[in-house]
Design a protein that fits this description.
With 229 residues, the chain is mainly α. It has helices at residues 3-6, 11-24, 36-43, 47-59, 78-99, 105-124, 127-142, 148-159, 172-191, 194-205, 208-218, and strands at residues 33-34, 63-65, 71-73. Helix content is 66%, strand content 3%.
């Protein structure tokens, strides 16, 4: 048995998961400073586990440490997004090729329900809900992986997109496009065509060139909001 599976969760682990969730949920804006003193007061713990959690988030590229040894949520640039898209195309493309043959009816039902929720969120312009359902959609697929390291790396890289700042009213067509792409992913998953599914993730879904006009139009250098698409 892997000893990591039975190791008790430390306070630093809990703080790490909490901060990662709050950043993904938009409770911290891109570029916003994370004030340790406020976390100490809110969580009623010492600074040590908070700093350990922040160091871990820094290693994953989700926060950055400035010259005063304080931390800010990373504010992605368009170039950062390009690199993340290219990386996810390679990683998730490889992942779905591996799991295409083991996707079952329960998985397909979950994918359909989640894409329906994404479509509803897109119509309502609810970026936070859209991002949450989108993440769950990808998690359904990645949960089938036996390669835990590949899944963890995919999760870490995808989470960086939560710190991409966007203008909230500039991306309705991008959301609709994403819903259409997820519908095609479901079609390929039904066919259990691993090669086609992997190529679709790499060359279309995570293609920076195919998403560039949406990214350029949505980018907000002031860090108003963030969404995972």
């Amino acid at each position: 048995m892997d000893t990591e599976d039975i190791r008790p969760e430390s306070i630093a682990d809990k703080v790490y998961r909490l901060l990662r969730h709050e950043i993904a949920a938009g409770q911290f804006r891109p570029g916003e400073r994370i004030v340790e003193k406020l976390l100490v007061a809110r969580l009623q713990i010492s600074r040590t586990p908070i700093r350990e959690a922040l160091l871990r988030l820094e290693s994953e590229g989700i926060v950055v440490c400035n010259s005063r040894r304080s931390y800010n949520v990373r504010l992605l640039t368009v170039h950062d997004v390009k690199e993340i898209y290219e990386t996810l195309g390679i990683l998730e493309g490889a992942a779905v090729r591996q799991i295409a043959s083991v996707i079952d009816d329960r998985d397909l039902g979950a994918l359909r329900r989640l894409n329906a929720k994404m479509r509803a969120a897109a119509k309502q312009g609810d970026l936070q809900a859209f991002g949450a359902w989108n993440r769950e959609f990808h998690d359904v697929l990645l949960s089938k992986l036996e390669n835990r390291t590949l899944r963890e790396v995919c999760d870490i890289v995808r989470d960086r997109l939560y710190t991409f700042p966007v203008r909230r009213h500039s991306i309705p067509e991008w959301l609709r496009k994403s819903v259409r792409e997820h519908r095609e992913i479901i079609r390929l998953a039904i066919a259990k065509d691993g090669e086609a599914l992997g190529a679709y993730f790499r060359d279309i879904h995570w293609s920076y060139d195919r998403n560039r006009r949406y990214i350029d139009d949505a980018f907000d250098a002031s860090g108003e909001a963030a969404v995972h698409l």
